[in-house]
Amino acid sequence: MAPNTDKAPFDLLYLNKINTKANGGAGKVVERMKPIVQGEYISKTQMMACRHANGKDWWLLKMMHDSVSVYTFLITKDSVYNYGKQSFPYPRKNTPEGIMK
Description:
With 101 residues, the chain is mostly beta strands. It is built from no helices and 5 strands. A hairpin with a 4-residue loop joins strand 3 and strand 4 (69-75). The radius of gyration is 15 Å and the shape is globular. The mean pLDDT is 83.
């Protein structure tokens, strides 16, 4: 597949941390390009964030490429926790209503 399409797989997902209070609110990068997924075929697109039930943390879901597996991360104020891959027991639908974007 062409590398410039949304169907092309990637094998890295990076984390960048920004202190939004630094520089008078303009922000400052405090951690840059830290790999949180390496050596896996992940989709170029298909990532979703969902607020945690506690109201302050976030779940981040990142779809694997051509798979029924999703990487799950918990993002807190201080850290990002990798909960690994979760697989679903049904086939992936290749229709607009079956694709997470």
